[in-house]
């Protein structure tokens, strides 16, 4: 059973946006998906409570801080939205559980510096677990200094960039109703769905795109 972990030590970088969209993608493929939330803010759980009954179902994953992370029986795909500051034994277990780890990162100098130490720790753990780790640039505005700084930073890392997602109100507006890009007419969000293609391909085992094709 694939377990996708979305992690970053910095709050407000887009973990819940990424986690809910990954869960919704798999649900729309006909899988029984559990979305777990161990973040204190419980953003993913709140999103689930807003999801309309007629939408493709995504079930909650009851995860407590003091217990081991074990997906419920019958789950075919699991997505875990992790808290800020994930490290130590908790990170050890997540690395053992995860099949792939997505790290969202916004083009902010504060986010960049906060993420570097975490990636170093993840890569140190990965030497034994070999879990694929991929970066996703969130709320990226092409042609800005911030976007250029982000791309210069990720070029120094051992972790591939899976995709860059543009800064758009679609994510905010849909989240307010418990929805994702996958839940609305494709014609409404065509450009955004195109940006998600390399992410869903990577989640299913494809290599990350080359730097030139991910911009």
Question: What can be said about this structure in brief?
Answer:
With 215 residues, the protein is an alpha/beta fold. The protein has seven helices and seven strands. Helix 5 (145-154) links the parallel strand 6 and strand 7 (161-166).
Can you give keywords for this protein?
215 residues; alpha/beta; Rossmann fold; 7-stranded parallel β-sheet; 7 strands; 17% strand
Strands across the major sheet, in which order? 3-2-4-1-5-6-7
N-to-C order of helices and strands: EHEHEEHEHEHEHH
Helix/strand/pairing category: alpha/beta
CATH class term of the domain at 3-18 and 80-203? Alpha Beta
Ends distance = 31 Å
Largest sheet: 7 strands, parallel
Please tell me about this protein's structure.
The chain has 215 residues and is an alpha/beta fold. It has a domain at 3-18 and 80-203: 3-Layer(aba) Sandwich (Rossmann fold). Helices cover 39% and strands 17% of the residues. β6 (133-140), α5 and β7 form a beta-alpha-beta unit. α3 crosses α4 (109-129).
Could you give the topology of this structure?
Blueprint: E1 3-6, H1 15-28, E2 33-37, H2 43-50, E3 59-61, E4 77-81, H3 88-97, E5 100-105, H4 109-129, E6 133-140, H5 145-154, E7 161-166, H6 169-175, H7 190-203
Parallel strand pairs: 1-4, 1-5, 2-3, 2-4, 5-6, 6-7
Helix pairs in contact: 3-4
